[in-house]
């Protein structure tokens, strides 16, 4: 063909993020639909599930975690990441877009309990989940504004300036070590320590070394046959958690529109609900 009719189908470099976003959107939609249809087709099966087979995600009390919850969390994380990593904060259009993202994020997180429970629990006790989600978002954004970076061992400057294998390997190893510490802290039931520790690494060391919370998976796996350690965890939790629960309940009441200080009965009921020993891990029967 004549060169005058050649078409250039190359994607402009500036549109590559949009292309990746579109491809990820389409692939995720089809993969999610496939998984959901598989789970539904095996809903009535009594056969034991293998580890690789998809299944519904459930939390304590039989609460079903729908994938919309994961989607909301990923959208929030990616949105905050893009706002934080903007190359030039002086671009007015980007600042306006970031402002609208903040407005939308606040509206979504204010109804996070509705998304989680799939019912209107705005004024119920379960509605406090929305307040907790807002607290977490404000804490993360505040740490980013103050200049703290998640995975503080992941030194971006070294990664960009030193292309040697040794330098990049050390950065990856330290970042993986930070993530491992964060997983241990979360398994010990210390959500806020793990969240803030991703920005202030010494907190992860403290959380990983100290005693697990009694209801956490770590306590179920490690304290099941160590009653003295479980008892220490229960006593420590009840002694240290009381002022925290009281402050949390008061702040939640104020934010949720019920400005009153919680009485002892409310604090005690919250402590009874939160503080309990984790069940012992299930023992598999020995094979004959």
TrEMBL record:
Superkingdom classification of source: Bacteria
Keywords per UniProt: Membrane, Transmembrane, Transmembrane helix
Membrane in keyword set: yes
Transmembrane segments: 16-36, 57-82, 94-118, 130-153, 165-187, 194-212
Claim: Nucleus is one of the keywords in the record: no
Protein name: Integral membrane protein
Organism from which the protein derives: Mycolicibacterium rhodesiae (strain NBB3) (Mycobacterium rhodesiae)
